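for the writeup, i need someone to sanity check this before i put it in the appendix. the sequnce is what the collaborator sent (i think, or maybe the updated version? ugh). structure was predicted straight from it, no edits. if anything looks off just tell me and ill rerun, i have time this weekend
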Amino acid sequence: MAQRVLVVDDDRTVSDVVCRYLEHAGYEVSHVGDGLAALEAVQDRPPHLVVLDLMLPGLDGLQVCRRLRERPDGVPIIMLTARGDEADRVLGLQLGADDYLGKPFSPRELVLRVGSVLRRAGEPAAPAAELLADAGLEVATGPRIARLHGRELALTLREFDLLAHLMRHPTRAFKRTELLERVWGWNFGDQSTVTVHVRRLREKIEDDPAEPRRIVTVWGVGYRYEPADA
């Protein structure tokens, strides 16, 4: 059965091209032109992924992203933004968007990004028996559950995979480009995506996100996970 993709964009020219490319790639595609219609479509028939434009009439893309992240199914989101909207792009990632593309973009690249996100959403991150634990932080990669001192954490798909990857390799420093390739499955992309996801993870697992002790910055390189007993 084909995976379902919902395209949310009020620019009919853009949406027609996007839908055509996605359909050609084998996806079942539906389209709506505003934020409220997007929420109704997701409620009526949840898609496997949402391609979400930032600028929408009525309820904008950021508000839609926030509402979708309140759902328990964690539908993946790829956000479309204008090139100059860096602040909104970062905010979209902070709200839980799994990826973004700046307009104008290549439809072929969008299809590749959709495939990458869906593969990550559909494949187990690790064997079911694997449990990563350190100082009250537990990550069970089979059921994809993370807890901090017994409290379950609300992590997005990418946040979970990033945390699990770093915890599997304690004290090892990873470049942002390495993390894009190993966690996102990309050999291209904006490295600020990694930076934003690290920032969000710190907000959820660090006692003081401004002075992180678990996910530390390695200046001039990237990031590493520092276990409590290191």
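The two ends are 47 Å apart (CA to CA). The mean pLDDT is 88.
thx in advance!!
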